[in-house]
Amino acid sequence: MNVAVMGYGIVGSGVAEVLAKKHDSIAKRSLQEDLSLKYILDIRDFPDDPNAGKFIKDFNVILQDNSVQIVVETIGGLHPAYDYVLACLQAGKSVVTSNKELVAEKGDELLATAKEHNVNFLFEASVGGGIPIIRPISQCLAANELDEIAGILNGTTNYILTQMITSGLDFDTALKQAQELGYAEKDPTADVDGHDACRKICILAALCFGTHVCPKEVHTEGIRALTLADVGYARSWGGVIKLLARAKRLDDGQIAAIVSPALVKNSSQLAGVNDVFNAILVRGDTLGDVVFYGRGAGKLPTASAVVADVVDCARNWGKNRMLLWDNAKDAYVRDYLDYETAFLVRAKSVDVPAAYADADRVFGTVQRLIRDGASDSEFAFVTPADTERALRAKLDTLLGVKVLSIIRVADY
Ligand code: HSE
């Protein structure tokens, strides 16, 4: 059986490396006489690469070669990845991808196409890098109704937040450090503005709750606006700020889904997840909480998840694994303003005692917080829980108060 890799970036080259280094054991585990990498598709040249003889630039070579039965897509982005993957599935080839944008946007369609052609479309590496999460959710937790997921799904932002919390670096300095270490891209938008975490929670929500969730339906906030003052108030409250991606099944068939910075108590299992590590908490009705933890990115951890899917495709050749979810439906994701939460509010007023008294009157008693280095006009408090819509309306009625930041409080 032959394999092709499309896209020879960090993950694609890691896949080629693992397939070569572990050739014999992978073939054995695949229950195949042989499982070899035949082609690598990339528009760039790699003349000094050990795989130099395998590079091609024309996708049709892969499509038309019937000896290539499994195709790995590590190009990233939607196009041409989607077009190539769809064509491969329609041609009766199984596809393995690490591309979360592709799965989050087109997962329902590609899974249905795989089923129709009795092949597989697998994507373990699209969420949590090397952490096994897709297979556990779809197979091992099958005896549970999964009600809720909360994850630290982006390593870059978790590294930046860890530096802000433990080393007192401000956001810009921590981002620069993350870029120097190769964690953050030159253009860090997808990570720091939460889009990467959003795609990943859409995939997990689709798997857990059975219906496709479009990234554009999920309210997403990143970490750019966070300051060391916010970090200080979180500390005095007894917790830390994490970029959380959350999804929850609601009673009426809708779901709640949001990506935003959130306060978690120091006692939470998510609070101690630092640096580039990821963690995913899944709440099931039979099992309770289970947390998956590990390296969420990186060449070899991610390649390890991709190769495991390749082995799965080879072992199950001729069988569709019945991994499916329904197409997206209207009004499935409830408006985030209707989710219940508490807020940590940081604000300014020329009369802080009067502002606190006003906050107590408007919200019911608030929890007042202090931090070292605050100016005389700065103050902060945690509200009781209410819908976000109600909390924001109440905040607007506070007299002589300028709100500087709002951070949601999570209950994990
Ligand atoms: N940029 C991503 C992260 C890589 O920082 O987590 C893995 O998807």
At a glance:
The protein is an alpha/beta fold.
Explained architecture:
By secondary structure, this protein is α/β, with parallel strands linked by helices. It has 3 domains: 2-130 and 299-315, NAD(P)-binding Rossmann-like Domain (Rossmann fold), CATH 3.40.50; 135-295, Dihydrodipicolinate Reductase, domain 2; 337-409, ACT-like. Chain A, domain 2 (Alpha-Beta Plaits), CATH 3.30.70.1150. Helix content is 36%, strand content 24%. The protein is built from 14 helices and 17 strands. Strands 7, 8, 9, 10, 11, 12, 13, 14, 15, 16 and 17 form an 11-stranded mixed β-sheet that branches. α4 (81-90) packs parallel to α5 (100-116) and α7 (155-167) packs across α8. The longest helix is centred in the N-terminal third of the chain and has 17 residues, at 100-116. It is elongated, with a radius of gyration of 23 Å. It starts with a strand and ends with a strand. The mean pLDDT is 96. Residues 129, 154-156, 191, 196, 296-297 line the site of L-homoserine (HSE).
